[in-house]
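Data availability (excerpt). The following record was deposited with the supplementary files.
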Amino acid sequence: MGTIELKSDLLRILNKIEDEQLLRAVYDFLKQGERAEEGQIWKTLTEEQKKEVYASYEESQDDKNLTSWENIKKKY
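Predicted structure:
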């Protein structure tokens, strides 16, 4: 999936969301990423949170642990 298609899908998903609280959470998340310097968010994580990120990454290497993009789009 290229950048243009990804942006298009994100806009389509966002346009379907009516829950203002969810939209605000997505907005805040994206704004935080926009303002953050590279590695800044990582530095705010606890050691336990970092371990969880590493464990999630390891699990993601096995395709059976992944959810297809189509299933995610259907859910949201």
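Summary of structural features: Residues 3-63 form one domain.
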